[in-house]
Amino acid sequence: MSDPILRAEGLSKVYDGGYRTVALEGVSLEIPRGSLTCIMGPSGHGKSTLLHLLGGLDRPTAGKVYLDGEDLTSLGPNRLAEVRSRRLGFVFQFFNLLPVLTALENVQTAMLLAGVPRREQADRSRALLRLVGLEEKMHARPGQLSGGQRQRVAIARALANDPDILLMDEPTGNLDTRSEEDLLAHIRAVHARGKTIVIVTHSESVAAMAERIVRIRDGRVVDGETAARRFTNGRPGR
Amino acid sequence: MTYWRLIWRNLTRRRSRFVFTLSAIAVGIASVVTLLSLGIGLEAEIRRQAEGLGAELLVTPKGWCAYEQISVLTGESLPEALAAAVVDRIRRIDGLTAVPYLTQRAVIRNQPVPLVGVLAGPMKELRGWGLARGEYRLDGRHVVVGHAVAEQFDLHVGAPLRVRGSEFTVAGVLAPVGNRDDLAVYMDLSVAQRVYRTGGKVSFVAVRVDDVRRIDEYIAKIQSAANVAVVSDKQLLRSVLAIVGSVGNALQLIAAVAVLAACFGITNTMMTAIYERRREIGVLDALGAKKSTIFFVFVGESAVYGLLGGVLGVAAGFAFSYVAAPYIGRDEFTAFLGSEQSVKVFDMGITIEALVFAVLVAVLSGLYPALRAAKLSPVEAIGYE
Ligand SMILES: Nc1ncnc2c1ncn2[C@@H]1O[C@H](COP(=O)(O)OP(=O)(O)OP(=O)(O)O)[C@@H](O)[C@H]1O
Ligand SMILES: [Mg+2]
Hints:
Chain A is α/β, with parallel strands linked by helices. Chain A has seven helices and ten strands. By secondary structure, chain B is an alpha+beta fold.
């Protein structure tokens, strides 16, 4: 496959707290630059684990993860934190936002952690909230936002430092159909701007817009085909 | 967005916990400040009184303990203990001036006031007194009073004063000198001995020597002339400060317990906060926070607790020592504090020390919780239920 931005090689993850759980076993895959990939599979079969390993949030028991050819598994914790801060954006199913901060401050915090000066933070954060259609809610706390709005803030925040890749773990898992549609529109818009997106999902409507679907079962990849046959706007990787 | 803002938002999210933890720190720091400010005031006052002694040597009966030595400085009444013959023998030694004191108590308007029987001439010379009003006259009908006593009881020149059934007239008011001399009534020694029926005895003798370099020689001479104890003003100061210091140590222990309790309060609050916020720590991890950043954010919260608690504690501590000082001037240790000027109500040195101390102990208390927060693995912190 040409020019993968993210590449996993023989990833295994074994949890050994009390009794052994093999969450992932020998997973190899490539995420093409600019693609929109869905990871699907039954509950408890290792999807989140895979996403965490791809994003450098956790370390594999065996195997390697390459981001643009750089081996993430060999990086020290500080360097890895830097990679997460500048090159990756995460969106989780729930509890994404810091509850004591406003929507704007949540976005700004991601910039703060990347060392963006205060002056720049405000303008860029506002622009990102505008992108997800929440400019008028920027001073609201997470508790004052709907589930869908919170996820949109989380997307704005994931984009804070203009990362190359967005990693999302069931971002619509908590949303009703309408909010899901709305969020997907925003995700599509972000994708259209050239971001590589990896989404773990159970939802068929999310999967419907994917260019590729990686199916996981029992910690192994069972099907990594290209979804060119799908009728959604399958744009080729850039 | 700044780290301080993040810290502040996190601190104040649980108002009551914030307030209670802050109160604990404030109490701890307040007790330290009270102690320091009273202690410093006390020591300064003791030094001032010791300087005001005006004599290099103090002749006392053998076996006087430090409490009685303190009374020499505070002007508390002391038992008459040195016989007239002893005083005479000391006075006959060449090269020194011996000034006997008979310290007793008079009652003016139902309040105890120190009364000192003295030899008019030598005493005035020793103390270097001046007169504010009236004349310096001590005899069977006249007394002089210290400036503060005159003010407190509104004693003008010519005012009658009844001491143990005998009538006296206030002949003069001494100029203020800023030590215990301001707080006593002065009577001729032999008259006082008669009024208080002490025979020819006195309480102690202050000795001023002509040549301070030969002080040890004088001590030996006095001790061979009479069976008495002789201490130098420096020894006296040292032993009094030692006693005050030992009382201070006990109080410091109490303050230390208060501070320790506050420390545990901070640690406990931070541990609870970290447990509650472990998902948020995971979010920060995912956003690319370094372990050191998370550590800093949590230690920063503790530090702010320390700073705010310190500010409140300093204010409360000074307020307390201001209010409390006059009420604890009722025993030998603290009698010094009775005079208003002696207690420092505000001291920049103490303030800065207390604030630095508060922040330091708060940071120390927050170290362990912050370390735990930094060590939390991101995935565990995110850990979906
Ligand atoms: N921290 C952990 N300690 C021990 N076992 C874990 C841990 N995290 C995950 N596991 C186990 O690893 C396996 C894979 O978990 P993972 O969360 O990746 O599943 P998933 O596919 O994301 O499931 P879901 O769709 O329900 O989110 C599960 O059996 C889970 O119990
Ligand atoms: Mg999962």
